[in-house]
Design goal:
There is one protein chain. α7 packs across α9. With 244 residues, the protein is α+β, with helices and mostly antiparallel strands. The chain is 45% helix and 19% strand. It folds into 2 domains: 95 residues, Phosphorylase Kinase, domain 1, CATH 3.30.200.20; 140 residues, no CATH class.
């Protein structure tokens, strides 16, 4: 029943008429701690289509949806992949379905494929992990492109690896609610902290890959790795406080 109620915005929106939707075939709740997010499969005049319905929860929902739509609009056709927004309501958006393959899935799979005795033999870890390297480039390019577009330094801020999808070998970001002004080193530090602490946390593989991430940033990006190190420690400390 909760799922059916959560689809009221979709059913009552002008989107059904706009897209000539004749019926809803299925719905699947997707992971989100802050909102109600569904993959919705519908029938239309042009066949079966899939969309994502995102309904914002909480007292801050109006400011969060405004912030998210601002960054979606800025990205537009500027080379960074994000879902197309098809419809917006007071507390909801309907957007393009980009698949369910998350960066977190990719990392788990890659770590499970590595034999412990081979960990120290890899020189360039990121050379073996193109989707991880692509995500780092996305984070950096987001900051650089937004500087050009706005004159300000913005960060994605939320580095949950579930917010990066990997459709057809590319990298796509699907959550811009928490974007704010900040230095790119903040995002890189948070990214490494999240990376290190996904279960199983602080493995030899994760530690080695994290060092490769910092080396890649140092060699290929205009960043201060000492600041990244500080941001890693700050985020790890925040994680401890959140879990108390």
């Amino acid at each position: 029943m909760e799922h059916d109620l959560s689809l009221e915005g979709f059913l009552n929106s002008g989107f059904l008429k706009q897209e000539n939707i004749t019926g809803i075939y299925s719905k699947e709740k997707l992971f989100s701690r802050k909102n109600d997010v569904f993959k919705v499969e519908v029938g239309s005049g042009s066949g079966i289509k899939q969309y994502v319905l995102k309904q914002y929860r909480g007292e801050s929902r109006h400011s969060r949806i405004k912030n998210e739509l601002y960054f979606y609009k800025l990205l537009g056709n500027n080379g960074l992949k994000a879902p197309n927004i098809y419809y917006t309501g007071e507390d909801m958006v309907i957007m393009e379905f980009m698949g369910t393959r998350m960066l977190l899935d990719y990392i788990i799979q890659e770590e499970n494929s590595v034999r412990d005795e081979n960990i120290s033999k890899h020189g360039d870890y990121l050379g073996q992990l193109p989707s991880l390297k692509g995500t780092l480039n996305y984070i950096y390019d987001f900051n650089k492109k937004l500087k050009v577009l706005t004159g300000k330094s913005y960060v994605l801020n939320d580095m949950n690896h579930r917010n990066f999808l990997l459709p057809k070998g590319t990298v796509c970001r699907v959550d811009f609610e928490d974007c704010r002004e900040g230095a790119v080193e903040e995002d890189m530090g948070k990214f490494i902290a999240f990376f290190l602490t996904y279960d199983p946390a602080f493995t030899a593989w994760k530690r080695s890959v994290s060092e490769s991430i910092k080396a890649y940033c140092s060699n290929n990006m205009d960043v201060d790795t000492s600041v990244i190190d500080r941001e890693v420690e700050k985020e790890l400390g925040r994680m401890v406080q959140r879990r108390k």
